[in-house]
Every structure is written in structure tokens, then in C-alpha cells.
Fold this protein.
Amino acid sequence: MLKAGRRPLDFINRASFENAIAAVAATGGSTNAVLHLLALAREAGVDLSIDDFDRISARTPLIADLKPAGRFPATYMYLSGGAQLLARRLVEGNYLHAKALTPTGRTIEEESANAEETPGQQAIRRIDDPIQPNGGLVILKGNLAPAGCVVKIAHLGRTYYRGPARVYDGEKAAMDAVKAQSIKSGDVVVIRYEGPKGGPGMREMLGVTAALVGAGLSDVGLLTDGRFSGATKGMMAGHVAPEAWSRGPIAAVREGDMIEFDIEKRTLTVEISDEEMQKRLAEWRRPEPRYKTGVYAKYIGTVSCASEGAVTRAPEQD
């Protein structure tokens, strides 16, 4: 690239971001890709929104049978033909912008044409034999997530979930509840104040999700304004926005409220009236911040919503 005088912004554009989203969808990739790609697009000056992920994932088939939801570890994708083979499959199905440039100066179509497929491999399926007809990610909205949230549906096997809320302010409180065996099948675990500002930092709920699986609680829903592990099982919604710290509706959820995930309708809702929601939010008070000075306090003051990539923004100048 340096010798040829090519720079990242020579090939990073709207088409390349849409190709990246399609690749994530086709491989059942991580929900973290939503954050990272939104953040990269902002830095590159490319207009990309959380809704683009839902639109592209809905039309892109899941063709890579990879763990944690699928059968094969990620190394099998490389051994089967790698990203080149995946790209060739997607180009053949017209799921990529084939003329988009790569760092080599050649197009995706040209690069993928040379893909070598390992005979008999099963990790990357043909376009006409997908694992499921749509990709691994969906974006839900509704009165609990007006700005959106992310659900991973690769190999999920269900499109609807409804249950009573078990509400915890922070991962530790939720972990203590799992250890105390106070969470039951059919519950919806709500973990809040773990978003970009509330954490601060939006950490992954690794401990809780692993503990739920270890406790055999596969029939439990989970929603959080933080992130969650790709190894999760069951209906899990992360990156709920606006987050609780920013007076998002998740801050108004109370113990026992009925919560509904509807993948087909693309909605995440709590079954209370608009009037009750507004009443609760009017009564809400932000918890005492963990950091009032220093770098974390500055981060809280400058970081954006998860639905915008959780990027930091310079404060407005006088």
C-alpha cells in the first residue's frame, strides 16, 4: 500500500462497509462488529447507521457453520478456503458490492475469483444450501430500545420470547442472583448501568452469561445496555440504547414487568403504558457516579450512545 501510494480512505467507503456487514452476517459474527463498524465509519466520515445492519443481515444468508453456535472452530474457515472463499460465495449470490476495491488495488470480485476450496469441506456452505436464509444479527427497537439493540440469532431457533423482568443494577448484582439460584427458567434478566457511560466502558457480561449456561438456564432471556458474550445461549439483547445512565427506558423497568422479544416484528418492549413509562422516567434519579474526576469522568462526558458506535466526541467549543 505504501509503495503504491494507497491509503485506507481510498477503499474504505459505503460499499466496503456494507460488504463488511454482509461478511459478519454470513458468518454469524459477533455483535461487537456493530459497535466497531459504526465507530470506524464515523472516523472515516461514512454515513452508516445501526439500521443498515438489520437491512443487510436480513437479506444475507448464514453460510459459515462456525462455533460458538455452529459446528466448527474458526480455524476451519481458514482451512476450508478462508475469507476468499466466503467472498466468492457472496459475490456469486450478488450479496457483495463486487467492484469494491481492496487494499491490493484489485476488486473483491477479482480477489475472490482465485479462492481455493478444500475438497469435502463443510464449514463454508454454498449459497443455495445456507444454514438459515438470513444473517446472524437483527436490530430490535421499541419502547425499551428506541435507538435500537442487537440480538444474535445465528442458530437461535426461536423468534419470540416473553417473560417477567429480573432487574439488576450492574453485572455483579446479576451474578450474585445466579449464584443464589434466584433466577428461574422463563425469566428475563435485565442488567443495566453497564453501557458506555454507565459502566463506564460497556464491558461484556461474560461472567453472567457463562454462569447462566453453567446453571443450565438456557430458557432465560437477557437484555443489557452493556455487551454480551458470543457464547451466550437463548434470547439475548445487548447494546440497548439509550442506556440507563442516559435516562433510557431500560432505567424504568421494574421487577416483574413483562418483557417481550419479537424477532419477526423487530421489537423489544416492556408491557407498560406510555403514561407509566413517562411517570417512571420523571421519577428516575441517576445513581452516584463511580468516577467524578480523571480520565474516566472525561470519558463519561464525551462517549456517545452504543447505537452510534460508542465513540468519543470532542466537547463543544465556546
Observations:
- The chain has ten helices and eight strands.
- The beta strands are 137-140, 148-152, 160-169, 188-192, 221-224, 236-241, 258-262, 267-270.
- The radius of gyration is 21 Å.
- The first helix runs from residue 14 to 27.
